[in-house]
Specification:
The structure is a single chain. The protein has a five-stranded parallel beta sheet with strand order 2-1-3-4-5, sandwiched between helices. Strands 6-7 form a two-stranded antiparallel ribbon. The protein has eleven helices and seven strands. The protein is an alpha/beta fold. The C terminus is likely disordered.
């Protein structure tokens, strides 16, 4: 199988608990070759990354199958035009390099659950304008919270992902970008140096159910169902 190469550009949401390393572990567990690279800095915006020569050089190298863009967590809601502009500018560079643009749709703050709908609409709208792909991480988080609200997806700051939150995000990427079926997502993966993440059967059952729902929901968006209808009726 041809190896997949994925570049992630974002901030601490992409960085916490070595999420990209988790994606590599999930791929390895399914005999898929994946290499990843992450450029991230706490609080960084996509517009800030656009002024980073290293970022642009990596994109222009043409080494990537997918380039994943993750915006600062509240900016798509506070300044949507700036968010859309950054996505559009990145997309021109990415398409010119022969890669595909992927948007990492983030989750709501734990204490502001209504953010979820607004973020989903913002990311889907920006993706549509740039013909990009959305990986609906926020949708998966929302589904898990609705089904098993006791699963701790957040750190104490109610914003950043816990280890379980990062693993859920990695699982969504594995399903959407690598084509790994939810029933092939393991409940135990190596983190580093003999340290493993072990999830109990009930948590994994919830994750797998929600992963399947994100795949169905995103396919509906691709078929032209408005994101508002996806969110309210999905």
């Amino acid at each position: 199988m041809i190896a997949k190469h994925i570049l992630f550009i974002g901030n601490s949401y992409s960085q916490y608990h070595n999420m990209v390393g988790m994606i590599e572990s999930l791929a390895q567990a399914n005999s898929i070759q994946v290499t990843t690279e992450l450029i991230a800095e706490g609080g960084m915006t996509l517009s800030g990354h656009l002024y980073n020569v290293q970022v642009l050089d990596l994109i222009r190298s043409g080494s990537w199958d997918y380039i994943v863009l993750q915006e600062q967590s509240t900016l798509p809601l506070e300044n949507y035009p700036a968010f859309e502009n950054s996505v559009s500018r990145f997309n021109k560079e990415i398409v010119s390099s022969g890669s595909k643009t992927v948007l990492f749709c983030t989750w709501a703050r734990e204490h502001i659950p209504e953010m979820f709908k607004e973020l989903e609409i913002a990311y889907q709208s920006a993706a549509k304008r740039s013909s990009a792909t959305v990986v609906p991480i926020g949708l998966a988080w929302n589904l898990v919270k609705e089904n098993r609200p006791t699963i701790p997806l957040y750190e104490q700051d109610k914003s950043h992902p816990s280890q379980l939150g990062s693993y859920l995000s990695a699982c969504v990427f594995a399903c959407h970008l690598l084509g790994i079926p939810s029933d092939k997502i393991p409940g135990r993966i190596a983190l580093f140096d003999g340290v493993y993440l072990d999830l109990d059967g009930e948590i994994m059952a919830t994750f797998r159910t929600c992963l399947d729902k994100t795949l169905v929901a995103q396919s509906r968006v691709s078929e032209g169902v408005k994101s508002e209808n996806l969110i309210l009726n999905g």
